[in-house]
Amino acid sequence: MLGIAIVEDDREQAALLETHIKRYAAEHQLVVSVSVFYDAVTFLEKYTQGYQMIFMDIKMPMLDGMDAARFLRERDQKVVLVFVTTMRQYAIQGYDVDAADFIVKPVNYPEFALKFTRLLGKVERPEAVSPDVFIKTENSFVRLAPSDIFYVEVKGHYCVYHTASGEYRRYQALKNAEASLSSRSFARCNNFLLVNLEHVSRIDGMSVFVEGEELQISHPKRKAFVEAFSQFMERL
Fold first, then answer.
1. 116 and 6, same domain (yes or no)
2. Span of the secretion signal (predicted)?
């Protein structure tokens, strides 16, 4: 869900902007939650970091949008901030508070939709977190955090989870292990191995080295595996 706040003292303009957001969401199958504040003071008093995007009017009573944005940036440097204004001259000041864009009133939907599409690319989405893996042994259950798994290997009808504390077998298909480890830090290097990219030290030709162990990369999987590793490294 995309959390959006509108900070606008003009109730008609606030309602129009909310309508545009919900129309865009409906047209693009986007789940959004929109909160509206009619003054910046109330917005800052109630602010939580559950928002990914904020539309802020500049000319408001008590505290204008530019000053409010400065207070906001002291608490949240990541949220996407968009100024809504009738005055383009504020655009230069927007750089001081890392504003992503400006929307000029009155806001028409076609222009809004174009800008909103670009703004979505700036939103920092949280990584999906894979749940822990539970494996039944002869006498107990073992709980494995995904970050502790080096790689998963297919052996017959079992998946073998290789970890720092040992190897654990589970009756399971590799595709099901892959689905449960939905984090983007896992990728297949061949049809029988699912590698945790967090533990890769290097890739050399058709080999990948995982915690000092050399594993083979198949030709059909190499391009996708190398791309997955490159994307993983870019996120670090």
1. yes
2. none
On whether both 28 and 56 belong to a single domain, the answer is yes
Q: How many Å separate Cα 121 from the centre of its chain?
A: 10
Which residue blocks in the chain are alpha helix, DSSP H? 11-27, 40-45, 65-75, 91-94, 109-120, 174-180, 219-235
Q: How far apart are CA 61 and CA 120, in angstroms?
A: 29
pLDDT in tens, 50-78: 899 999 998 888 898 888 988 998 888 88
Taking a C-beta distance cutoff of 8 angstroms, is the pair 194, 172 a contact?
A: no
| Number of structural domains found in the chain | 2
145 within some domain: yes
Among candidate residues 201, 179, 203, 178, the one with its CA nearest the CA of residue 191: 178
Q: Which residue type does 235 have? A: R
The bridge status of strand 149-155 relative to strand 32-37 is: unpaired
How, if at all, do strands 149-155 and 193-196 pair? Answer: antiparallel
List the domain range (segments joined by +) for residue 113.
2-122
State pLDDT tens for residues 11-21: 999 999 999 99
